[in-house]
Amino acid sequence: MANNTITAPRGFVAAGVICGIKKSGKADLALLVCPAGAKVAAVFTTNKIVSAAVHVSKKHVKSPKIWAVVVNSGNANTCTGQAGMKNAITMCAETAKRIEVDPHNVLVASTGIIGEQLPIKKITAGVSKAAAKLSASSKAGLDFAKAIMTTDTRSKQAVRRLGISGKKITIAGAVKGAGMIAPNMATTLCFITTDVAISKALLGKALKTAIGNSLNKLTVDGHQSTNDTAIILASGLAGNRPIVSQCPRYRKFTLALADLCDDLVRQMALDAEGATRMFKVVVKGAATKADAARASRAIADYPLVKCAVNGGDPNWGRIICAVGSAGIKLNPDKLSCKLGDITVFKNGAPKKFDAKRAGKIVSQTEHTITVDLGVGKQSDFCYGCDLSAEYVTINADYHT
Amino acid sequence: MANNTITAPRGFVAAGVICGIKKSGKADLALLVCPAGAKVAAVFTTNKIVSAAVHVSKKHVKSPKIWAVVVNSGNANTCTGQAGMKNAITMCAETAKRIEVDPHNVLVASTGIIGEQLPIKKITAGVSKAAAKLSASSKAGLDFAKAIMTTDTRSKQAVRRLGISGKKITIAGAVKGAGMIAPNMATTLCFITTDVAISKALLGKALKTAIGNSLNKLTVDGHQSTNDTAIILASGLAGNRPIVSQCPRYRKFTLALADLCDDLVRQMALDAEGATRMFKVVVKGAATKADAARASRAIADYPLVKCAVNGGDPNWGRIICAVGSAGIKLNPDKLSCKLGDITVFKNGAPKKFDAKRAGKIVSQTEHTITVDLGVGKQSDFCYGCDLSAEYVTINADYHT
Question: Of A339, A382, B53, B150, which is most buried by a Cβ count within 10 Å?
Fold first, then answer.
């Protein structure tokens, strides 16, 4: 069977183990290693309060090459002061020691509860355990994907294979999603591996573009976490002629990367906390692209729209209400709205429509809401998911 | 027993009847009349898509005096095009006919589902029925308060009594709340009556100030509706020396009005859709008042904070996460947070605290969250409520 995990590209080994941070006893320490060293690029949360892990990784990512990424789940290492910084550095140092590289050649990521110190002894023991289990098997890749989960109900992975200058290239990704997801630089934890040979600058550019049109377009609850990190590692072992300019080969790579990220973001939307279905919001006829982005996000974030989708209810009035309060330019007399292919509101007036068929459309696993603001030619989109009673249950008692 | 409804001030009669808009068969048409004519002031939603009722009332409120306010619940008369405008005008005209005044001396308000045409025949029949029942009794005032409800589980009313230049002044209010509530000009439907003698200009100023510090400070789900309207009518029948300047008598009146509005907003917060408790967010140490307002609202709107309050969980990390993503100026090394009187986070580091006592604090009917941004001297506040599974249940099936 094909390896469809982050160990699929040549040059990567991984592991996921139980180190004892999570009370549930589930896997909570993950290790990804590129023994030959990898080109790296990353995007981080723009939240002003960030995890100590983000502080450290932001520094280390400047290194020409990275050999490993160490991740813990169950604790965000955020709002933890100087002690937290020391622990993040220790995580890198312990990992570096196991694989014999410099600590600044290791990246670190954390996810989980905010405001508690890491059980650092458990983690360093976990790093040893994980280092001893490193493997290129698909089981090892799956173990990694499972060990980064928090309230996710399933691991999320994707692989794309393509040919570049006669060589087989593989790109693979693992993400953790669930809550605290909003479009604003990176989203949650996302690790991508590839064996393509590419310059560090273009790897960064490709990642930024791909994330911008995928993970940054998803809003689950309108907030980005303090720990959001997306990292791509490129081993360069595919043997292709290195990509050093924005040539057709670069474009081919970015298309595959974008497609991979779109796959991952859909998996995240459908496994968002308590989500039962997702939707895409397309806003067109906007004066500016920023207006279109703002309006689409206002709709996808609006709890009443999310509840209506949960109820399979074609309550389009809430969509219009969200647009009206988004603070963007619109023409009330030209405003129109579609649910799937059904026009429910046109030029500022309601249209008679088949409510039963509309109900079926919004009850699908995924449907598209289209709004025309009637003032210009710009458009943008975003992804959202429904809001269920389970979201509340999950989040009312996460701490205790 | 004292009359504690909007018919308490001298010069007002009211009624609330069933006209048949709501499928539930509950009261859905309300009428408030000041037979001698009243000075009037109002604030309306700033949503760019507004109800036909808002369009009409915005025009009529410019009249020197208003004789009546007609309100229907169960249908918002929004996104209803030209037919909707005609219906809103008809509601005023029918009411005007019954009490023999000009249609432009009548205000109209609607609340309920967006995008459906009003059953105007049922409404005109309802206006006749209500006009025949107009009374200054407290029962009539209560009927009014009940007939404006949508998903509210109880009517919301408040009364304040004070003396001005040796005369007894009464101020009374009725509001409908529940969902689609956010701080941005007016909130939901709010009707206030008073018998004070005051100039139209000062009545407007007093209303704007009172609403700004009460109803505009409450966020239930971060969105303001297309129909938000707050109206104050002053009959002038108390016999006080008319208030025509910002004198101490004006100040006394505004304090009482502000207190009344604060009472109403707390009732709204605690009866927000599915809410079980409310909280106040105070943000201080901000560089600007706007930053303080934005940060307090970001906290109160954050679903994960709202869920934590629902679970009685002192999960302060989510508060800091919300502050960090609010886009305001802060100093991570000076940032502090208190739950009630317990400091949980100080100068960027967590503080050991009694989790059991903190859990008790956030489980109260109302508690205060205080955040110090550590960069300036400005402060502001807002009110929020918890997010419960019931909110979702209520809003998943509201339409059908």
Answer: B53
Burial of A330 (0-12, 13-18, 19+ CB in 10 A): buried
Would residue B8 count as lying in a domain?
A: no
CA atoms within 13 A on the CB side of B293: 11
Choose one of B270, B299, B329: the last residue of a domain.
Answer: B270
Residues of the domain holding B326: 278-396
Dist CA A320 CA B114 (whole Å): 9
A76 phi/psi in degrees, rounded to 5: -85, -15
Q: Catalytic pick from B78, B95, B124, B187?
A: B187
Q: What is the mean pLDDT of the segment spanning B242-246?
A: 96
**ipTM score assigned to the predicted complex:** 0.77
Residues A246 and A349 in one domain: no
Are the Cβ atoms of A332 and B49 closer than 8 angstroms? yes
Is the CB of residue B342 less than 8 Å away from at least one CB of chain A?
Answer: no
**Is B288 known to be catalytic?**
no
Tell me the per-residue pLDDT of B332-348, one tens digit each, with 9 for 90 and over. 999 999 999 999 999 99
* B399 interaction partners in chain A (CB closer than 8 Å): 308, 311, 313-315
Question: Does residue B108 sit at the A interface (CB-CB below 8 Å)?
Answer: no
Q: Is residue A116 part of a domain?
A: yes
**Residue (of B348, B127, B324, B69) closest to A83 by Cα position:** B348
Residue A258 shares a structural domain with residue A349: no
pTM of structure = 0.82
Q: Residue B149 falls within a domain, yes or no?
A: yes
Token look-up 């954390």 returns: A110
Maximal C-alpha separation, chain B: 69
| Shortest Cα distance, chain B CAs vs residue A72, angstroms | 18
Same domain, A211 and A88: yes
CB-closest option in A50, A316, A399 to B315: A399
B16 neighbors B26 (Cβ within 8 angstroms): no
